[in-house]
Amino acid sequence: MTNEGKATPNKCTSETMTGLPQLTGIPVAVMVAALSLVGTSIAPSEESQYSLDNQSKDEKCLSQDVTMETEHVSQQVTQSTPAVHSDEKSTQDKDETASDIEKHQDTPKSRPVSELIKENILQQEKLKHPDLTKPLETKPNGVLEQVQTVKVAQMLAAFDSHKKSPEKALERKPSVRKDMFKRVVRASKFRHVFGQAVKNDQCYDDIRVSRVTWDSSFCAVNPKFVALIIEASGGGAFLVLPLHKTGRIDKAYPTVCGHTGPVLDIDWCPHNDQVIASGSEDCTVMVWQIPENGLVTNLSEPVVVLEGHSKRVGIITWHPTARNVLLSAGCDNLIIIWNVGTGEAMIQLEEMHPDVIFSACWNRNGSLICTACKDKTIRIIDPRKEEVIGEKEKAHEGARPMRAIFLSDGNIFTTGFSRMSERQLALWNPQAMDEPITVHEMDTSNGVLLPFYDPDTSVVYLCGKGDSSIRYFEITDEAPFVHYLNSFASKEPQRGMGYMPKRGLDVNKCEIARFYKLHERKCEPIIMTVPRKSDLFQDDLYPDTAGPDCAIEAEDWFEGKDGEPILISLKNGYVPGKNRDLKVVKKNILDNKLSNTTEKTGPANKCASSIVSTAIWEKKYFMFGGKETLLVCLTVIRQMIKVSQ
């Protein structure tokens, strides 16, 4: 005992290190690293090495973190050093250290680590107690481990207090990523829609598609016929082909060639698959009736000619629910709504558009129309009141043409160009046209985007003129509201596009859309299909769709009545019924002519004139189609021969 008391200074420093295990809460490696900074050459003794070996694996894992928190730990080192003068003093010192810990926890002070270690060494040198290491040696191993575990717990608590905020941030990141993943991978039955072009033998080859510089589709399709605007010398013409008439089309095939200028737009009547309207550069609108089995000879006499525009007519569209109501828009900035049954212009919307009208579209029940004009303004018009009920200036700031269509829920979908000539698509609420619901920028191509909308599935197909792809989007009530689905790409650019109504699709093959892509010399059908394993009818893909029956008559609509589309089921496939004959009754014109002729002629000629008028009516009946027209015409001819005799 006395020899240990007369220790040399070097030995005293070793004894000092033997006292280090009393600082059981701090790893020895940390103390050695700290002492090396001070400049002391103190090496750990056997007892300190023994305490280091007895440390748990958790302390070793935390040793790297301890070096980063040395200032915080050093405070605990000085506070937790026990005085070993005597048993009585030790209890008092413990109380003092506990009170110091509480004070320092309340008011933490920052001191250099080197000063704290030097102070600890000086205190232990002053003690020089002979039984310095005995209290540690006499303690059983269990007590030592217990003290160490307590100190480690304190250290963990101290470190956890600083690491709470980073750990929480790390925990939040995966949840955000999961939410983003859920948003990107959206559940939709149209996610896997794919397009496929038909084989060459099912295309329409050797067709001279029109080269007119006008941004229309140049093609119109219904369940019976496909109509294509073609190049023609000496006027305008378009082909009308039965759907089954595929392959090479003869150059001498009959055409519809009544216009004296190039045809700009065509549209099939939704209520009669044999009636088609056309607008031309000759400032006229003509309505044609196609024979049931297609053309046999050139058709040059229309059912009715609608004259009222002073410049070329570039937009033609039929009313969706009213019979014989047709809208036409020309480069004279005028919109005319016709009653085809009488050949009269019932409504003229003047002074609403200061520039060329790019597009016009009816809403679902035909009570409103939406127009896009060259002045970059979208207008919502009530045609019967002849007033604009909503408009948005600079909907798309680019100078290229815009398109605007109504959706089934009443919103408006537009395509256009930005100021930097980037193609855009946007969604608008007619009740709040100040800001769009959403805007998407697509690419920097120059082709005008032609939108084709399926109201049953809320899918919009965008076909750009000059592009070689068809992109389709699903419109929902969830952000971002317009969801990109997929695209169909091909090699050759498209000069026009036709869109088949839903009732003309093959439901047994899960076909949800069919396009007729116009190349320079042919027309290529493209089928959009939803992959399904079952051969049964898919109710979710084919809800009830608009049928060929009209909801109201033209006179009722002009009086202010509206009618929703009459829906039909496609479960057993669409079976086309007998088409109603288009009857044009020009009462005023015919009555005036007949009254003038009867005044100038005698009674014998009156009978002849009445028979001629009857012949005119029967001729119209013959033109519009009927089963007994031949017999009726023969009887009329016989009556005329008898009168002449």
**How large is the radius of gyration?**
45 Å
Number of helices: 15
Overall mean confidence score, pLDDT: 76
Distance between the termini: 163 Å
Structural class: alpha+beta
Q: How many strand elements?
A: 32
User: What summary fits the major beta sheet?
Assistant: 6 strands, mixed
Percentage of residues assigned to helices: 25-40%
Note poorly predicted spans: 1-25, 37-64, 66-92, 101-108, 132-150, 162-182, 588-628
Anisotropy-based shape: elongated
Strand content: 25-35%
The gist of it:
This protein has 645 residues and is of the alpha+beta class. The chain is 30% helix and 26% strand.
Task: Please provide a written account of the structure.
- The chain is α+β, with helices and mostly antiparallel strands and about 650 residues long.
- The protein has 15 helices and 32 strands.
- The strands form 8 sheets. Strands 1, 2, 6, 28, 29 and 30 form a 6-stranded mixed beta sheet that branches. Strands 3-4-5-7 form a 4-stranded antiparallel beta sheet, with no helix packed on it. It has a 4-stranded antiparallel beta sheet with strand order 8-9-10-11, with no helix packed on it.
- Helix 3 crosses helix 9, helix 7 runs parallel beside helix 9 and helix 14 packs antiparallel against helix 15.
- The longest helix is centred in the N-terminal third of the chain and has 44 residues.
- About 30% of the residues are buried.
List keywords for this structure.
elongated, alpha+beta, four-stranded antiparallel sheet, 30% helix, 645 residues, 32 strands
